[in-house]
Every structure is written in C-alpha cells, then in structure tokens.
Specification:
- The protein is an alpha+beta fold and about 230 residues long.
- The chain is built from 7 helices and 13 strands.
- Strands 5, 6, 7, 8, 9, 10, 11, 12 and 13 form a 9-stranded mixed beta sheet that branches.
- The protein is elongated and about 70 Å long.
- The two termini are about 30 Å apart.
- The structure holds uracil (URA).
- Uracil binds near residues 102, 105 and 188.
C-alpha cells in the first residue's frame, strides 16, 4: 500500500499532511525513513513515531458502555465514540458499533472498522445470542418464562413473533434474558408487555464473550480476537 494511503487508512493524518510527516522522519521502514508518499510499504514493516501500526488487520474492540452515552456518530450529548482514542475515529473505513445499545443501557458493546464482521454479527440469520441482566419496577410474572420461550410472543407493532428467548428470574424484580435477535428496544418492550417495565439494563454477554471476564470499568475497552466469533 502507498505510504500516504497507509497513514490516512489508519488515522494518523490526512493525505495533505503526509509530506510534512515524511519530512520530519516520522515513518521508518526497516530502519530507513520513508521519503515519498507514493513509496509502497507493508504495515508490518513500518514504525510510526517509533510505534508499530495500530490494528493493521482491522480494529476489533469490546467496550464496557457506560450509562448515558449514545451509539451514534452524530447525536447531541455524550457519544460512545468520545470514549475512544481520536486516531481511531480518523480511520477509513470508519470505526462503528456492532449494533447498538440504548442510551440508558450499559455493558458489552463491540466496535470495529471491518464492515463484513459488523454485518455478520448483526445479520438476522446468525442469531448470535446476547444476554441482558435487568431489574424491573414490578415483579416479573413467572409465566413470562414460558411465554418468551414459546416462539409465539408478539410485540405490539410487529408482524412476526419474537424468536424463542430464555428468561431466567433471579429475584422478583431481576433476572437475565437471552435474545437471539435484535429488535428495537426489545428487552424493554418484552418486559413492559408482561407488566414489568425495566429499571436497569446491562448487556453481559455476546456469543462467547462475557463482560465479567474482561474486567473493564465503565468506559474502558479492550482489543478482542474476532476469530472467537467464527463458527
Ligand atoms: N434491548 C433493549 O431494550 N435495549 C437495549 O439497549 C438492548 C436490547
């Protein structure tokens, strides 16, 4: 790849700034400064400001999303992207969330610049299980366990029933719900429909990835190996 393409692909600088970067000797290949923007380089062979290229084969991270921030590039208020290093936000292709969590939902959120990975994870055909821990304002009726598992549970305004979902009650007003699809506000709508509006909601698992194993404080992220999602 051309040196100017590499620097802009991985968010170091704009193509306009490349000449300046090279003049200052910030890009070194095999111990020798790269001089020309059109010089071809492999990401593995260069150091930029003395460091290897960050995530040269795609960026995949798990974030512990805090409450109150939005999974959007353009809305007002705090955004999940504000929690990431600025350089990541200049990568092209852009870094995006894999699906979304509501502003008032916390927990496990994946981000990537790999469109194919994002698509595969969110594809309705894949049914990647996602586990949510919730508390509710009122007790959840025990019958909800069978209703949610039936594959016949209809949400208002939807044309097809929800896929079977596993509800585990750990107290009158708390539990876990495992979904195999991702409809708009699905957990909140399912629990509200059985008379138990959600008080707090946290995503604790996506497929094989468990938030508890990652030891992330709210707002912290860690790089993950996308191969764990391969089947
Ligand atoms: N279901 C919801 O209601 N909200 C989320 O953020 C995720 C699933």
């Amino acid at each position: 790849m051309r040196t100017d393409a590499l620097l802009s692909r991985f968010g170091y600088c704009s193509r306009r700034e490349v000449a300046q970067w090279l003049k200052r000797g910030r890009v070194i290949r095999n111990g020798v400064p790269v001089k020309s923007p059109n010089e071809k380089v492999e990401p593995e062979d260069v150091l930029i400001d003395g460091e290897p290229v960050e995530f040269p084969h795609g960026l995949y991270v798990a974030l512990n999303k805090p409450l109150g921030c939005t999974c959007s590039h353009k809305e007002e208020g705090e955004l999940v992207y504000d929690l990431l290093p600025e350089q990541w936000l200049r990568r092209n292709p852009a870094v995006n969330t894999v699906g979304r969590l509501d502003k008032e939902t916390s927990g496990l959120l994946l981000l990537t610049d790999d469109g194919a990975f994002e698509h595969a994870q969110t594809s309705p055909k894949r049914h990647v299980p996602k586990v949510y821990a919730f508390t509710t304002e009122c007790p959840v009726p025990p019958e909800a366990v069978a209703q949610f598992a039936s594959g016949e549970f209809m949400l208002q305004g939807e044309r097809t029933p929800c896929l079977p979902a596993e509800l585990e009650l750990t107290g009158d007003c708390e539990g876990r719900l495992t979904l195999h699809e991702g409809r708009y506000h699905q957990v909140r709508r399912m629990l509200a429909a059985v008379g138990a509006p959600v008080l707090t909601l946290q995503r604790i698992e996506i497929g094989p990835l468990k938030l508890a194993d990652l030891h992330l404080e709210p707002g912290e992220w860690v790089a993950i190996d996308p191969a764990i999602f391969a089947r």
